[in-house]
Write a structure and sequence with these properties.
- The chain is mostly beta strands.
- It folds into two domains: 42 residues, no CATH class; 119 residues.
- It has no helices and 14 strands.
- The protein has a five-stranded mixed sheet with strand order 6-4-5-3-7, with no helix packed on it. Strands 8-13-12-9-10 form a five-stranded antiparallel sheet, with no helix packed on it.
- It is elongated, with a radius of gyration of 21 Å.
- It starts with 6 loop residues before the first strand and ends with a strand.
Length: 176
Amino acid sequence: MPLNTDKFLTMTSNGIRTLAAGIPVSVGIGSANQIVSTNANGKLDSSLMPSGIGSATEVMLASEALSAGDFVNIWDNAGVRSVRKADASNVARFAEGYVLTSVTNGSSATVILQGTNTAVTGLTIGVRYYLSHTNPGTATTTPPPVTTVNAIVQLLGISVATTSLNFEFDDFILLS
C-alpha cells in the first residue's frame, strides 16, 4: 500500500502509531501544538500566523455591489464602516484597498489593504496604473486630464503580470 504523503506519523498517548493530517487553519488555543498543512495554493492560512504577520485585511460591509479586483474606498455610512468602489472623479472616494472576490450590496467584504491584486485582468506588464475617473473601482493607464475639476490622480501601482497589480496605498493629487 502506498504511503499517503499528505499525512504524518504520530503516536497516541497509549503508544499506538497513527497517520494524522496537519491542520489547514487555526481555531486558537485548541490548535496548540499541532502540525500545520498548506492550502491548495501551497500557502499557509493567515489564521496560522502570529499577530501582526500576514496579509493586511479588514472585513466590512459593502455599501454597493463589488466585483473581484475592484479598488475600494472605506467610508462612514451612517456610523457603519463600509466599503464602496473607489472613484477618481470624487475626491472623497480615493482607493484604500481592493477585493479579490465579488460581493453583493449589504454583504461582508474582505478588503485587502496592500499587496498584489490578482483579480484584475488585461494589464500590460511593467506599466503604471491609476484609479479610473470614468469606471469606478478599476485601474487605467490614463489618469484624469489636469483640466478635470475636483478629480484626483492616484497611482495604484505597477503591473507585474497581465492579471496582477502591486498595490500599496499612496496619497493622491487633487485637480482643481
